[in-house]
Amino acid sequence: MSAWAGLGWGLVFGASLLMVAFNYRDAAWRIHAFISHTVGGNRLLTPTVVRVVCGVLATVSLVSVASGPLRSG
């Protein structure tokens, strides 16, 4: 059962990061606004940086999920 949970986790995590990467409902702007108004927020953290990082993480996560059956079989 844990294999199915890991597969589900990877799919949900990748899908949610893709939603941020494609800026669904201004998610990247909301993350940027939250972090930029905290102590230690950096000016280099722009919504574009948030979208690129989430896109890269989503790609890595979904490739890992897709290659999982190849590694185990």
List the helices and strands and how they pair.
Elements: H1 2-21, H2 27-36, H3 47-72
Name a few traits of the molecule.
single chain, 73 residues, mainly alpha, 3 helices, elongated, membrane, transmembrane, transmembrane helix
Please, could you describe this protein's structure?
The protein contains three helices and no strands. The mean pLDDT is 87. With 73 residues, it is an all-alpha fold. The two termini are 17 Å apart. Helices cover 77% and strands 0% of the residues.
Our count of helices gives 3
Q: Write down the overall mean pLDDT.
A: 87
In which range does the helix fraction lie? over 70%
Write down how many β-strands occur, each being a DSSP E stretch of 2 or more residues.
Answer: 0
Low-confidence stretches: none
Separation of termini?
17 Å
- Which structural class fits the helix and strand makeup? mainly alpha
Beta-strand level of the residues, as a percent range? under 5%
- Largest sheet properties: none
| Secondary-structure element string | HHH
**What gross morphology would you assign?**
elongated
- The Cα radius of gyration reads 15 Å
